[in-house]
């Protein structure tokens, strides 16, 4: 994961009054890998490319766009990992957009609910792969929100993912963002949230229980043996 945007992280935090304030708005302090800081780096180092960009998508919304044959919005849950979304209003924060780059609101367009039906399969997909014309496409979301949804988690459950990064996540009723970890909109329940701790480099020989104990202790949660 790219960690070259420390300058842009400092700029984003300063734009709203510091890391704690940014965390209260977006659910996370500024992280180098988050999309807002990456966009800011592009705008600062390759201004012409930024100016010529019509739309900005995440991998999730881009994949959905390919299926329906038009650009679709970024869903709330995946937008939580951008340092740009106000997780309470589920709208882009204007101060953060202005800090990242001019005209960014139009490039991102309006964020959408993760439960949104974004369209039906495009004519190309129907002709090339035989999809039914009435096949609907829902909004796509990110890997961690998808894990919470795919595991059919509910309040009180804890999910643990060991992959290219190691992540522990929980269903959350009320958002209480801190300087460690993240709080994002819940992909399943529009009135709930998800909290997660993510370690970007996977352990070479992970002791699953030891890892789970470590991250849950950091989150203030006891792990029963």
Task: Please describe what this structure looks like.
The chain starts with 5 loop residues before the first helix and ends in a 7-residue tail after the last helix. The chain contains 11 helices and 8 strands. The protein is α+β, with helices and mostly antiparallel strands and 225 residues long. The strands form 3 sheets. A 4-stranded antiparallel β-sheet has the order 5-6-8-7, sandwiched between helices. Strand 1 and strand 2 form a beta hairpin.
Index terms:
225 residues, alpha+beta, four-stranded antiparallel β-sheet, two-stranded antiparallel sheet, 11 helices
Q: How do the SSEs run, as a string of H and E?
A: HHHHHHEEHHEHEHEEEEH
Oligomer: single chain
Number of strands: 8
Q: Report the uncertain regions.
A: none
What level of helicity do the residues show? 25-40%
Q: How widely separated are the two ends?
A: 33 Å
Record the strand order, biggest sheet: 5-6-8-7
Percent in strands: 15-25%
Average pLDDT value?
90
Largest sheet: 4 strands, antiparallel
Radius of gyration based on Cα positions:
18 Å
Q: What structural category do the secondary elements indicate?
A: alpha+beta
Shape: globular
The number of distinct helices, counting runs of at least 4 residues, comes to 11
């Amino acid at each position: 994961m790219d960690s070259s945007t420390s300058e842009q992280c400092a700029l984003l935090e300063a734009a709203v009054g510091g890391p704690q304030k940014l965390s209260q708005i977006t659910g996370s302090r500024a992280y180098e890998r988050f999309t807002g800081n990456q966009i800011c780096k592009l705008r600062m180092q390759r201004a012409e490319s930024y100016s010529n960009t019509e739309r900005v998508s995440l991998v999730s919304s881009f994949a959905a766009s390919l299926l329906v044959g038009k650009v679709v919005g970024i869903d709330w849950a995946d937008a939580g990992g951008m340092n740009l979304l106000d997780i309470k209003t589920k709208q882009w924060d204007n101060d953060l957009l202005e800090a990242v780059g001019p005209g960014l609101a139009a490039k991102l367009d309006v964020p959408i609910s993760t439960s949104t039906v974004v369209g039906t399969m495009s004519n190309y997909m129907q002709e090339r792969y035989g999809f039914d014309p009435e096949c609907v496409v829902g909004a796509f979301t990110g890997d961690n929100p998808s894990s919470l949804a795919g595991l059919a988690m509910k309040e009180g459950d804890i999910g643990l993912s060991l992959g290219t990064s190691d992540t522990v996540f929980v269903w959350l009723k009320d958002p209480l963002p801190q300087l460690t970890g993240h709080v994002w909109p819940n992909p399943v329940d529009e009135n709930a949230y998800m909290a997660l701790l993510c370690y970007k480099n996977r352990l070479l020989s992970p002791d699953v229980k030891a890892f789970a104990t470590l991250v849950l202790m950091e989150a203030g949660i006891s792990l029963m043996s």
